[in-house]
Amino acid sequence: MGFWRRCRNLSADNRVVRSIVADSAPMPGGAQRRIRYRNFFLLLHPRRVRRDSLRPRATFGLGVACIALFLLLVVTGILLMFYYSPGTDPARGAYASMEELRHGVAFGQFIRNMHRWAAHLLVVAAFLHLARVFLTGAFKPPRQFNWVIGVLLLVVTLAESFTGYLLPWDQLSYWAIEVGGSMMAAVPGVGPALRRMVFGGEEISQTALIRYYGLHVLILPAVFTVLTCIHLWRVRQNGGLAHSIENDDASPQMPLPTVPAWPHLVLREAAVALACLVIVVAMAVAFDAPLGEPADPAHAPEPAKAAWYFLWLQEIVSYDYGALARVHWPPWDPGGPTLGAEFWGGVALPSVCLAVLLALPYVRQRRRGVGVYFGRTRRVACVVFVLVALTILALTLVGYFLRGPNWVLVWPW
Amino acid sequence: MTERRLYFVVIALCLAAVAVMVAAVRQDQARSWRWYQAEFARRTEADLPARLGEATDERLRADLLAAADRVAAQDVALRQLYVPELGQVSRCVSCHVAATEPLAARTQFPWKRHPEPYLEAHWHPFEQYGCVVCHGGNGRATEAVAAHGEEGVGVMPRRKDEFAQAACGRCHRADEIDGAPAWNRGRYLVQDRGCAGCHDFQDAIAAASIGPTLAGLGSKTSESWLTAWLVQPEAFRPQTRMPRPRLDAREAAAVARVLAARRLPNVEAVAERMTTTRMDASRFERRGREWVEGAAGCTTCHDWPRLKRRGFHPVSGWRMIGPDLGRSGEKLTVPYVAALLDDPQSVMPGTVMPQYACAEPDRLGAAAYVVGLGAPRQRSARTVEAPPAEPSAEDRALASDAMSRLGCAACHDAASTAHARIGPALADVADRRYWQLQWSAADVSPDQRHLQRYLEWKLEGSPQIDRAEASPGVPMRMPEYRLSQHERRSVVAYLLSRTQTPMPEKFIVEAPAAVAWTLDGPFGDVNRTRRCTSCHRLGGQGGRAAPALDGTGSKFSPEGLRRYLAAPWPVDVAEQARMPHLGLTPQELNAVTRFLAEMATDRAVRDRAADAAGLTDKEMVRGESLFRGAADTATGRPVGCIACHRTAAIPGGLVGPTLGERPSRLSAAWVYTRLRAAGPLAADSRMPAPSLGHADARALAAFLVGADVAAGDDAADAPGNGGEHD
Question: Is residue A21 scored above 80 in pLDDT?
Fold first, then answer.
């Protein structure tokens, strides 16, 4: 028995492995498989979809919105690349590109606005998409791995936003990245090295800008694309949207009524994508993407704030951790550095959040409360999730509107 | 949802997408420069017939047509200039279209023309320098608010009006820059008010003693006067250069007591002689007054309210270089003034005041008269007060602390006292960012916080600065200057030129190599005591109260000059500001005339000397008729010198100086050269350009100076009046 075959036999019994590779539907005949793999659009869409999947409240079109926004970002991003030069020289570099886009390039400001607002909307849409999946229990078997892919996509989205934030090289972006860097440096042991690797030096400079630029325009979009393909493929493999008939205790029912994917599904997707386009263009016309002063490493604005989607972490970091903040690293070495608020708020908490999200589908495998919002048996989990989400929202709002110089509470008016 | 409704929704969304896209296109196309350019072209075309009608000159008409054609031919497009040496883009001309088309300019912004002659080809043509190099702002921007730097916190606004001159000082390394009057004034004020005593500007501003010495103040004045002066100098003398020092009442009293305890031996000697010989200075007061208001020429530099001036024609740029003596009686003592008149340098080292050779009664009388000016009669003969109480050790400590804290030595006795600059260096002040400035107590809204505003605010010297800088235990040190807004803005224009940002090498204009002169030798000795250069300039150095000495060696004949210097007379009928009668010795007269004849020559005049040689009596006769109004040979227009000038024999106008004395003070070559000149004679001259031909210029020179061949004594032999001024 060859090595690979033994591996396959070993993995075939593993629940985790099976959830990743196995197709939940029984494999149909060769003809259908050929169609599925030869036609890209049929790869994305089944020929028929369940009627209940098309109800707006089933998904709110959030997944499609994410893909539409990503495509918008790709198109506008490519256009921006024509004029962007990732340098720190004030006369010819990144900041000059921004001013050039604003003042000299036809539609430059408009394209930049679109890119920015689409990026922000993508973060919002991705998070809401995650919330929708959680609240309908759609991460339960057999969709556990797709949930993991989805969480990774959220992480990549945030990473895209984070790296893109630096590129204008203005005070806003420079110091928001600096805040992120200080959180990175709080990782015990490897923190400073990690920060040095990401920035290519001790401080944010030309090296960091080039690295961020490469990540932003090449590596992360590629990862995002690959993950999105897997994500969509898994949706198809797992038989479309989760439905309450998948619950363990659901009695066997008649097959659900279906309609052809064309035009019912495709047109709805087109409508969502068009709606995204309209919203983004309208926002781009109405609101200009901000551009601060040129980045100045010698002078921090008061207060230096992270990008809004990390602001809740910065807000958490700003609190007093009491005894926790006096824990040494390593714990047995009283002379070592203490793990400050940056560690607890900026490293430990997001790591725990991420770990919880990733492990979630594998913790309890029972299929209950699937396919409905706030299912009766999952009510506690859903309420906890909403409370956490609201807390994050509240912290973000406080950090955004109510924090003044020296991070003291101020009234926004 | 039915299939039809679905299609309907998709189509509706498509229409919405088209609508927002159209909105985006319209927004992007609505750029103000498009309108400004189109409107400029429209107005230029509309006004062309009227302007052509007004144009008198055929060439101007052709130029107008060409400019209109150029404007009409230009597309509406973003216009810009990139200056590679500076890495600067200037898109200002996209809206300010008339900057490069001055002939088509209008009266409203942004179509006004740029002031002359800054953009002319030999100065700073736009094609070579752009706009940003002088005006700052954001040259990339194409909307007014962003381009003008009015966008908010910390953004420096464009430098307009006098602030644009800050840029002159960044490239031009001279002490005075043509076309930058505000910068020149600012630099002058920085020098004049002693800013360089405390701040380092990395400019060739000498940290000279600009205030009088503090030695021997007890012999000069009284403790009570000093106390009042230290609290509020401008109360005694509104025009004083001295800023108000930040002393509290206790410190002011201590400093006054310590200073009043210092005595000057030579003043004390005069006082003692006056007491022992029972000499009453007031006996000579009438004589002193005549001398002061007459021969001594004190009124040229000093003023006092009781002085009645009959008309007053100072030369351009002249200001009272001596203090107002109106309230001297409250301040000075008679022995001090007498000692000062005897030997100014020993009483007040470095003073600009000349030494007079005069008799002691003159000196004492002058002292009595001056001390009596504006003071109650009974105090006029006041001598030294009874010695005040010796200052205590506590007073001394307090005074020494205060004086070193405030840096009095920056202006007083700077040369003799070891003194460090106590203020922050300002050589890079223009590079400061708004956040490096201390705004804390400034009543300036956050979006106005930029360096330019800050410097103005700081120079206003408002009490807020005290609060801003008075961190506990560190009182504000910079004294309170009283500058007008005009002066403040000039100083800011100068400060904004103090940058360490390197300018491209090819833009730098080094200062003209200073004429290497040191006043050694016989003339140097004369100057050391007689202070010629307090009022006169030579080779760019010296005072500005009187005409420069450059070229005077060619302008004046040695005999005429010697006669004038021995006993100067008012050259202008209405002249009051005039050369003092210093009582120069014959040796001194020789030294001065020889020095000027050798060193202060004018090449243009020297080259023309041959043309004006050998003047004849015949030419003199012709010259007189020209002077009286005969027609000039070249143009046929009357020359008519008589409208403004007169001679002793021929009555004429009183606008210009009286001419034609014998022997002439002026040299024939100089007169000839001036009369040939086609341009204005001097920057401050009111005389029209004569531009006479060779024969006419010779004739007039012969009339005014006298013929060489015959002894022209038959002409008016009036001593007295000569023409020094143009």
Answer: no
* B208: confidence class by pLDDT, cuts 50, 70, 90: low
Q: What digits encode the pLDDT tens for the residues A351-404?
A: 999 999 999 999 877 888 888 898 888 899 999 999 999 999 999 999 999 888
Residue B59 half-sphere exposure, CB side, CA atoms within 13 Å? 0
Domain regions of chain B by residue span: 1-27, 32-151, 181-207+423-474+486-507, 217-379, 521-601, 605-705
The CATH superfamily holding the domain B521-601 is Cytochrome c-like domain (1.10.760.10)
* Residue A171: pLDDT over 70: yes
Question: Which residues in A lie closer than 8 A to residue B435 (C-beta atoms)?
Answer: 299
Mean pLDDT score, A36-49:
63
- Cα B305 to Cα B286: distance, rounded to the nearest angstrom: 18
Multiple choice CATH, B217-379, 1.10.3470, 2.60.40, 1.10.132, 1.10.760: 1.10.760
Name the E strands within A21-174. Answer: 48-50
Contact B142, B92 (CB under 8 A): no
* Tokens coding B698: 């010779």
DSSP B391-457: PPHHHHHHHHHHHHHHTGGGTBSTTTS-----SPP-TTGGG--GGGS--TT----GGG-SHHHHHHH
Tell me whether domains B181-207+423-474+486-507 and B521-601 share a fold: yes
In order, the DSSP letters of B324-391 are: P-TTHHHH--HHHHHHHHH-HHHHSTT--PPPP---HHHHHHHHHHHHHTTS-GGGTT--PPPPPPPP
Task: Provide the terminal-to-terminal Cα distance of chain B, rounded to the nearest Å.
Answer: 100
Q: Best of B7, B9, B29 to disrupt the A interface by mutation (most A CBs within 10 Å)?
A: B9
Q: Do A104 and B142 touch (CB under 8 A)?
A: yes
Task: Quickly list DSSP for A159-192.
Answer: HHHHHHHHTT-BHHHHHHHHHHHHHHTTSTTTHH
Task: For A91, name the nearest residue in chain B, comparing CA atoms only.
Answer: B87
Supply the mean pLDDT for chain B.
Answer: 82
Residues of A in contact with B436 (CB under 8 A): 299
Q: Please report, for chain A, the start and end positions of each structural domain, with discontinuous segments joined by +.
A: 36-407
Query: Do the beta carbons of residue B539 and residue B517 sit within 8 Å?
Result: yes
User: Has domain A36-407 been given CATH number 3.30.450.40?
Assistant: no
pLDDT at res. A284? 96
Phi, psi of B424 (to 5 degrees): -65, 150
Total residues belonging to chain B: 726
pLDDT score of B724:
40
CATH architecture of B181-207+423-474+486-507: Orthogonal Bundle (1.10)
Q: Which residues of chain B have a CB within 8 Å of the CB of A270?
A: 10
Residue whose pair of structure tokens reads 């002085």 in the numeric block: B307
Q: Residue B90, SS3? A: strand
At A17 the pLDDT is 52
Pick from B657, B556, B642: which is nearest to B313 by CA? B657
Residues of A with CB below 8 A from B13's CB?
Answer: 271, 274-275, 278
Say yes or no for a CB contact (<8 Å) between A91 and B23.
no
Residues 6+ apart with CB under 8 A from B163: B182, B452, B489, B492, B493, B496
DSSP single-letter state for residue B515: P
Does the structure show a pLDDT above 50 at A80?
yes
Nearest CB to A104; choose among B27, B88, B140:
B140
More confident residue, B494 or B659: B494
Are B146 and A274 an interchain contact pair (Cβ–Cβ within 8 Å)? no
Q: What's the whole-number mean pLDDT along residues B110-138?
A: 89
Q: What is the DSSP string of B149-178?
A: T-SSTTPPPP--GGGGGGGHHHHB-SSS-T
A185: pLDDT strictly greater than 90: no
Contacts of residue B7 in chain A, CB cutoff 8 Å? 263, 267
Please tell me the number of Cα atoms within 13 Å of B40 on its side-chain side: 38
